[in-house]
Automatic annotation (TrEMBL):
Residues 160-214 form the HAMP domain. This is histidine kinase. It catalyses: ATP + protein L-histidine = ADP + protein N-phospho-L-histidine. One of its GO terms (cellular component) is plasma membrane. Keywords: Kinase, Membrane, Phosphoprotein, Transferase, Transmembrane, Transmembrane helix, Two-component regulatory system.
Length: 418
């Protein structure tokens, strides 16, 4: 049912290229029909006038011939003769014709000539001729409309293969933008048009982007792995140092370096798609409370009901811990953590997330605005990656009254124990 609705919506979308092509064909057809119709109308009208003039002259010659045989040459219907025709004959002293349609529905063709100082005039009924011309115009309009009724649907159908190929390009580009770098459009061997060029360019772009990202991932993983061995030695050596202020400083920097290396290794595994969720039914209130407690940082925890979710508790703990640490490191107190059903919200009261993060998402080694504090910019990247592994949605935003807000929505409905 949903597929039918989407198909109907695409079919009725007047902004679609299909209907734009159909409208262009319709406009071109109307222009051709109008040009041909005007040409035929004008040609038929001129021919009708020419035939009417010949009939009027013949009738005039017949009347003049009767006058020559002693017939009545009195001016025929002097009140009905067009004044302009009468004046023209009197001034030029030669025969003339004039079409008169001053009276609606009663068109006449007049012919007049000077005879013995007077004017002889006759009129010929043009009603049948003009009705035939009107009928021709109607037939032209009806034929044009009938042609449009056939041409427009055919144009829409002819444009559908092009439209379908463009939709395929758009869908594939959307998949690439969503992270599916293996998506390809593929081009037919026979097609050699502009859409094929676009498809080839998108496939080439996806291939180049995939290659660069894989190279970056390999580099990150190699660096992290290579650093583990000297880091273990450095950690061991720092433990052997005599106690003192300098030793504490060295050990603190070693812990920071170890955290950075472990974060890089975790990111490399997430980028490689090597992480798999191990789901279990867990009480969210207990998991979130334990996660906050292990960070050693203060946070106000509020839980609505006793929610339960089927998720990976280890990865959920990693997400909550990173969000709380990020709130303390870059935000402002108090930090609040709330659990409502399968939705977990972490909020601080600092300057909020920078606009770049809200627009593009978290980026590794980018902490955003200076007022957000110092760090490597890996915590939110890891939280987002782990959320994708467990099928959760992680949304970043800013509260209206200030402060950063991270909302984690776990998959599945809300449940309560007991």
């Amino acid at each position: 049912m949903g597929a039918l609705v989407r198909a109907a919506r695409e079919l009725l979308n007047w902004r679609s290229l299909r209907w734009k092509i159909a409208a262009l064909v319709a406009a071109a057809s109307c222009a051709v029909a109008l040009s041909v119709g005007l040409l035929v109308h004008r040609s038929t009208f001129d021919r009708t006038m020419s035939v009417g003039q010949e009939r009027a002259f013949l009738a005039l010659q017949t009347v003049i011939a009767q006058c020559g045989r002693g017939g009545d040459c009195a001016l025929a219907n002097p009140d009905n003769i067009p004044p302009s025709l009468l004046q023209q004959v009197r001034d030029r002293k030669q025969p003339a014709v004039r079409y008169d349609d001053s009276r609606p529905g009663i068109p006449w063709m007049w012919a007049a000539a000077p005879v013995d100082g007077d004017v002889v005039a006759v009129q010929t009924d043009m009603g049948a001729d003009m009705r035939a011309l009107d009928a021709l115009d109607r037939n032209i309009v009806e034929a044009a409309l009938a042609a449009l009724a056939v041409v427009v649907p055919l144009a829409a159908l002819a444009a559908e293969p092009i439209n379908r190929r463009l939709r395929r390009v758009a869908r594939t580009a959307g998949r690439i933008a969503d992270g599916d770098l293996d998506a390809r459009i593929g081009t037919g061997r026979r097609a050699r048009d502009e859409i094929t060029g676009i498809s080839s360019a998108v496939d080439s772009m996806a291939g180049a982007l995939q290659g660069r990202l894989l190279a970056e991932q390999r580099f990150t993983a190699d660096v992290a792995h290579e650093l583990r061995t000297p880091l273990m030695g450095l950690t061991t050596a720092s433990e052997l140092l005599p106690e003192g202020e300098a030793t504490d400083l060295v050990r603190d920097r070693v812990r920071v370096l170890r955290t950075l290396v472990e974060s890089l290794l975790e990111i490399s595994r997430l980028d490689a798609g090597a992480e798999r969720a191990e789901r279990a039914v867990v009480p969210l209130s207990r998991v979130v409370e334990d996660s906050v407690h292990r960070t050693g940082l203060r946070a106000r925890l509020s839980v609505t009901g006793d929610p339960v979710a089927q998720t990976d508790p280890r990865r959920l703990d990693r997400i909550i811990a990173n969000l709380v640490v990020n709130a303390h490191r870059h935000g402002g107190l108090p930090v609040e953590v709330s659990v409502d059903g399968t939705t977990i919200t972490v909020r601080d009261h600092g300057p909020g997330f920078p606009r770049e993060l809200l627009a593009e998402g978290p980026q590794r080694f980018r902490t955003g605005a200076a007022e957000r504090g110092q760090g490597h910019g890996l915590g939110l990247t890891i939280a987002l990656g782990q959320a994708q592994v467990i099928g959760a949605e992680l949304i970043f935003g800013n509260a209206p009254d200030g402060g950063a807000v991270a909302v984690l929505r776990l998959p599945g409905g809300t449940r309560s124990e007991g």
